[in-house]
Write a structure and sequence with these properties.
It is globular and about 35 Å long. By secondary structure, it is of the alpha/beta class. It has 6 helices and 5 strands; from the N terminus they run ααβαβαβαββα. About 30% of the residues are buried. The termini are far apart. Strands 1-2-3-5-4 form a 5-stranded mixed β-sheet, covered by helices on one side. Helices cover about 35% and strands about 25% of the residues.
């Protein structure tokens, strides 16, 4: 593959745009029949392996969290997700888009992220029915003053 083709793939692959990298261990939480299979496959292609499920008992590099309004408390879900990832790792919070069943208000995402101690980036469209927010855990260096 040429360098030009590599760059074209980076622009089109949602997983690359979202920051996933080869050989990462990515844990998936909240999987159900309504998730975006194309996004899942794109992530698996980039990382070169399968997403690990909620029962994975080691530390992951990143977490993909599918969350719908009726899934419970978002803050609790985010706090739980942070226990699974490396310090400085990220959580890709995926919520249904406006008008879809299970839509979560952006203000709720912002409040839950802050309460869980996460820094949020802007929301991005990751498929026909889902929006994503990349949330980052604090780095160890920031807490050591």
């Amino acid at each position: 593959m040429s360098a030009t083709a590599d760059h074209a793939e980076e622009r089109t692959s949602p997983a690359v745009r979202l920051g996933f990298q080869p050989e990462q261990v990515v844990q998936e939480i909240g999987y159900d029949d309504d998730v975006d299979q194309e996004l899942r496959e794109s992530i698996e292609e980039v990382i070169g392996g399968d997403l690990v499920d909620e029962d994975y008992d080691d530390v992951a590099d990143a977490v993909v969290l599918w969350f719908r309004d009726d899934d419970g408390d978002l803050t609790d879900a985010l706090v739980d997700a942070t226990t699974y990832i490396e310090e400085g790792g990220s959580i890709l919070l995926l919520t249904p888009k406006t008008g879809r069943t299970g839509y979560v208000e952006p203000s709720d995402i912002s409040e839950a992220s802050t309460t869980a101690g996460l820094s949020a980036s802007k929301s991005v469209s990751v498929g026909k029915d889902w929006s994503g927010s990349r949330l980052v855990t604090p780095k160890a260096a920031k807490s050591k003053k």
